[in-house]
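Retry 2 of 3 after timeout on previous attempt. Resubmitting C-alpha cells to design endpoint.
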C-alpha cells in the first residue's frame, strides 16, 4: 500500500484526482463512505424507471472549454438549457428576473432601455455592497427583493440576507432582455446517460481500485499510503479541533406521479414565499427521458444532515482559515473540493480545482 495514492471520496474532486494520478502511472485506491460513486451528482433510475438525481438537481454548465472537453472523454452530452420559474402570489414568473418578469408582474410594456431605467428608479444604492441584501437592493430595489429573494434566502440558509456575504446573491443575474435561461454559459449540457455513468467511465482504469461503504475516520490509522487526497469536510479531518464549520443541509422528498407526463412547464419551479420547501424539480426536463409518468423532488433546507453548502459568512471564513493553516502543515495530504476547501463551488469549478491540484501533485513527484 505504501506506493499507492489514497483518495478519500468518489465525487468530482476525488474521481478527477484519481483519474489524473492513474494516467500518470500511479496506483490509486479510492474509498467512499457512501454505497455509491459520483458524490452528490449520483443519479439512478427510481422504482418506476425514471432517472432521478438522488441529491437534488445537478445542471452542468461552464465557460471553461478545457473542463468541458475533459469531461467529454467520459460521456456524450445532451444539450440542455435550464429554465426556472418563481411563484409569487400564486403566479409563476421567469427567474432570474428579466424584462418579461417585470412586464408580467407590474402590467408594463417595457423594452430593454426602459427596463434598465426601471431598475435604476427602484434600486436602493448601497455602499459598500458587502451582504446579499446589499446586492439585491442595490440591483432591483425593495419590492422585487421582498417578493423573490428575502423569504427564499431565509428558507435556504436559515439566515437573513443581511447576514450572508455578497457572493451568495451575486450568483443570480438580473436581466433587461427576455433571456429566461437560468445560466448563460457557453457550454450547457447534461451527461447523455447520466452522471453516474460518467463517473463509472472516469474511474474505469486499471490503476484505480474503488472501495465503497468505507469511512475514512474508521480506517485512517490502518491504511498506509504514499499520499492522501482528501475531499471530505476539512474540520472532520482535524477532528473538529476548533469546532464545527457551519454547513447548510437538505432533505429530499422524491415523488413519482403515475400517468402524468408533465408536472410543470420548466425543470425547476421556486417557491420563495410558500411551503417549507424551496423548489420542485422535474427530472424529465433535464434528461429528455420519455415516460408515461414523471418524477419530481421537493427540497427542504435544514441545519442538520449531510454537509451540502458552506455557509458564506465572514466568521465562518475566519474559522476555515484556521483549519486551512493546519492543512498547510499536514505533509503528505492534498485537500481539494467543496468540503475540503470550504467553497461554494459549482461542478465545473470542482473539476478545475482537482485538475490543478493533480498537476501540482504529479509535478512534485509526491
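Retry 2 succeeded. Sequence:
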Amino acid at each position: 500500500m505504501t506506493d499507492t495514492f489514497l483518495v478519500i471520496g468518489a465525487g468530482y474532486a476525488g474521481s478527477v484526482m484519481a483519474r489524473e494520478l492513474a494516467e500518470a502511472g500511479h496506483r490509486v485506491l479510492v474509498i467512499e463512505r457512501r454505497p455509491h460513486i459520483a458524490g452528490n451528482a449520483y443519479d439512478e433510475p427510481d422504482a418506476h424507471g425514471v432517472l432521478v438525481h438522488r441529491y437534488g438537481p445537478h445542471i452542468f454548465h461552464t465557460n471553461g472549454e478545457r473542463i468541458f472537453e475533459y469531461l467529454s472523454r467520459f460521456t456524450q452530452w445532451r444539450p440542455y438549457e435550464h429554465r426556472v420559474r418563481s411563484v409569487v402570489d400564486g403566479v409563476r414568473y421567469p427567474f432570474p428576473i428579466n424584462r418579461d418578469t417585470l412586464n408580467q408582474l407590474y402590467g408594463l410594456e417595457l423594452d430593454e432601455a426602459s427596463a434598465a431605467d426601471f431598475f435604476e428608479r427602484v434600486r436602493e444604492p448601497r455602499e459598500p455592497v458587502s451582504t446579499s441584501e446589499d446586492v439585491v437592493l442595490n440591483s432591483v430595489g425593495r419590492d422585487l427583493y421582498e417578493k423573490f429573494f428575502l423569504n427564499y434566502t431565509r428558507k435556504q440558509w436559515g439566515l437573513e440576507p443581511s447576514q450572508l456575504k455578497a457572493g451568495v446573491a451575486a450568483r443570480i443575474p438580473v436581466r433587461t432582455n427576455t433571456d429566461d435561461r437560468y445560466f448563460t454559459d457557453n457550454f450547457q449540457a447534461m451527461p447523455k446517460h447520466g452522471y453516474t455513468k460518467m463517473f463509472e467511465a472516469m474511474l474505469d482504469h486499471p490503476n484505480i481500485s474503488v472501495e465503497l461503504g468505507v469511512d475514512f475516520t474508521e480506517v485512517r490509522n490502518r491504511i498506509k499510503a504514499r499520499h492522501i487526497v482528501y475531499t471530505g469536510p476539512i474540520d472532520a479531518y482535524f477532528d473538529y479541533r476548533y469546532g464545527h464549520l457551519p454547513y447548510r443541509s437538505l432533505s429530499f422528498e422524491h415523488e413519482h406521479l403515475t400517468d402524468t407526463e408533465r408536472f410543470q412547464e420548466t425543470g425547476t419551479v421556486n417557491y420563495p414565499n410558500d411551503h417549507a420547501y424551496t423548489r420542485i424539480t422535474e427530472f424529465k426536463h433535464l434528461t429528455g427521458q420519455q415516460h408515461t409518468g414523471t418524477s419530481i423532488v421537493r427540497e427542504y433546507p435544514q441545519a442538520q444532515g449531510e454537509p451540502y453548502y458552506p455557509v458564506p459568512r465572514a466568521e465562518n471564513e475566519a474559522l476555515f482559515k484556521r483549519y486551512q493553516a493546519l492543512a498547510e502543515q499536514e505533509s503528505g495530504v492534498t485537500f481539494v473540493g467543496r468540503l475540503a476547501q470550504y467553497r461554494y463551488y459549482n461542478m465545473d469549478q470542482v473539476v478545475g480545482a482537482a485538475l490543478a491540484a493533480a498537476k501540482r501533485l504529479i509535478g512534485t513527484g509526491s
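Attempt log closed. The chain has a mean pLDDT of 96.
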